[in-house]
Write a structure and sequence with these properties.
Layout: E1 2-8, H1 15-27, E2 32-37, H2 52-63, E3 69-71, H3 74-78, H4 84-94, E4 99-105, H5 106-109, H6 118-124, E5 126-130, H7 140-143, H8 146-149, E6 152-155, E7 160-163, E8 168-171, H9 181-190, H10 200-208
Parallel strand pairs: 1-2, 1-4, 2-3, 4-5, 5-8
Antiparallel strand pairs: 6-7, 7-8
């Protein structure tokens, strides 16, 4: 089975998340894309983070009409800080032989060396890096320390950086929305419209439960 995973707070999930996952799944001919809301992100201030139960339910509502999308509560059930390396190991244990591609933005990938056991991540998953406005698209040698960067080489035929772990890193342009969850939260707080930024079901759920006010 070949899957893509997208992790994050999804605070809230929006149309940008969904379109990126759809374009990646189609481009790489993957079986499914799995959205994994974090319980407690290691790198973010939790001041504006609503409960994991609300965030998971919004993900489920957002993806319910796409048979190729799935929501996972693996990090929420585990509790505590959500480390990607632990999640990837759990997925490999649950599905032996699975091929995992990790969807991340340039903002996250450029700081990959701050992630827990970051070198192990490249043994467990491919990385599909999505350019984000305001964050440079860097070469592997600019992101990783020399010893690790030397394990990669550019495969021009496939358009990816392959490595001797058997995984790859690639950059993929997707439809640019310029949507951010923080701006959506601010709009809700101010009473401004979020129409065409959020799936209709998510917008309704937020209103019903008076979230982000």
């Amino acid at each position: 089975m070949r899957i893509a995973i997208m992790g994050g707070t999804f605070n809230p999930i929006h149309l940008g998340h969904l379109r990126i996952a759809e374009e990646v799944r189609e481009a790489f001919n993957l079986d499914k894309a799995i959205f994994i809301p974090t319980y407690q992100p290691p790198h973010k201030d939790n001041g504006s983070l609503i409960s994991p139960e609300h965030r998971l339910e919004m993900v489920r509502l957002a993806i319910k009409d796409n048979p190729f999308f799935e929501a996972s509560d693996i990090e929420i059930k585990r509790g505590g800080r959500s480390y990607s390396v632990v999640t990837l190991r759990s997925l490999h244990e649950k599905y032996p032989g699975i091929d995992i591609s990790f969807i991340v933005g340039t903002d996250s990938f450029n700081d990959i060396t701050t992630w827990c056991e970051y070198e192990e991540l490249f043994k467990l998953a491919n990385f599909i890096v999505i350019p984000r406005s305001g964050y440079a698209v860097k070469k592997i040698g600019e992101v990783l320390p020399v010893e690790l960067a030397r394990r990669f080489w550019y495969d021009a035929e496939k358009g990816v950086y392959s490595n001797d772990y058997g995984t790859f890193v690639t950059y993929m342009e997707t439809t640019f929305f310029g949507i951010s969850a923080s701006k959506i939260r601010e709009s809700i707080k101010q009473g401004s419209s979020t129409r065409y930024l959020l799936p209709k079901e998510v917008e309704g759920y937020i209103a019903k439960n008076k979230l982000y006010r």
